[in-house]
Specification:
seven-stranded parallel sheet, 7 strands, alpha/beta, about 300 residues, disordered C terminus
Length: about 300
């Protein structure tokens, strides 16, 4: 029986590359995106043409991670067509660069709704089935900015820090059901996410920073230089991480994976220290069993 994978934010970037690569590898893939009849119609058609041309088990579905009913409908469609879901890649998200104070509350809600609550909605829709079948893998696409705060990326960093915390909680709580939760933490890769960065709406607050607001441009310039370099990384390294995680048996997967070589030295010690703390925390709060990756030992759904 083919492993069935659902990917959010599959119109472009990591999600699109993963959908194509995993389908070519023989997996059954549901590539989801919003506005499949609107602004993403060309992306949907391109994936559908690829699937038909190469005979791939690749299907597109309409899924807006900020809409409960859209999420529930898409997950049910996938379950109706495939019978089960084995892997979910929570990839949908967007970023920002700008003075944190100048982002309105509504703008920050928008980022959190997509980057954090989007994954929560999808996970809530798929987890009953995964718990019932006693297997499953949640891959959360985080960021190096989910571990280290970058100035002028405040809302984005906050969203990824929150995603990291939720992924860790899922990993603890789902372990009795052999359902795994992991994180992938990319650095700078050349993807369309940089074409849709959210700018702060409150221009008066930006003006209030005067020359200090120019630091935001320095940060932006680093990203632009990174994605414009001739040897800029694209999506391959991230997709390879997805493949390794999917094909690694339960109990042997790392919780955090950093696919970007330049970022690995920055995060390795931090991630290693966090891994050592997990069983300590579980022991302190009297749930030491949940820090162990093991075969399911409880019954019930």
């Amino acid at each position: 029986m083919s492993t069935v994978i659902l990917i959010t934010g599959a119109s472009t970037g990591f999600g699109r590359a993963a959908a194509e690569t995993l389908a070519r590898r023989g997996y059954t893939v549901f590539a989801t995106m919003r506005e499949t009849a609107g602004r993403n119609a060309n992306n949907r058609e391109a994936l559908e043409s690829l699937a038909k041309r190469e005979g791939l088990a690749l299907e597109t579905l309409e899924l807006d991670v900020t809409d409960d009913s859209s999420v529930d409908k898409a997950i049910q469609q996938a379950l109706d067509r495939a019978g089960h879901l084995d892997v979910v890649i929570n990839n949908a998200g967007f970023g920002n660069i700008g003075v944190t104070e100048a982002y309105t509350v509504e703008q920050i809600k928008q980022i959190l709704d997509t980057n954090v609550l989007g994954a929560v909605r999808v996970n809530r829709a798929v987890l009953p089935g995964m718990r019932s079948q006693r297997s499953g893998l949640l891959i959360h696409v985080s960021s190096a900015a989910g571990r280290v705060v970058v100035p002028f990326l405040g809302p984005y960093c906050a969203s990824k820090f929150a995603l990291e915390a939720l992924a860790d909680a899922y990993r603890f709580e789902l372990s009795p059901f052999d359902v795994d939760s992991v994180l992938v933490e990319p650095g700078i890769h050349r993807t369309p996410i940089f074409d849709k960065m959210l700018n702060p709406a409150d221009a008066a607050r930006v003006d209030g920073y005067g020359h200090a607001g120019e630091y935001a441009k320095r940060v932006s310039d680093v990203f632009q230089a990174g994605i414009s370099a001739p040897d800029a990384l694209e999506s391959d390294e991230v997709v390879e991480c997805f493949i390794r995680l999917i094909e690694t048996p339960y109990g042997e997967r790392p919780f955090r994976t950093v696919p970007t070589p330049a970022i690995q030295p920055l995060l390795e010690a931090y991630n290693a220290a966090a891994a050592e703390l997990r069983p300590v925390v579980a022991q302190i709060f009297n749930v030491p069993e949940l820090a162990l990756q093991r075969r399911a030992t409880v019954a019930g759904g």
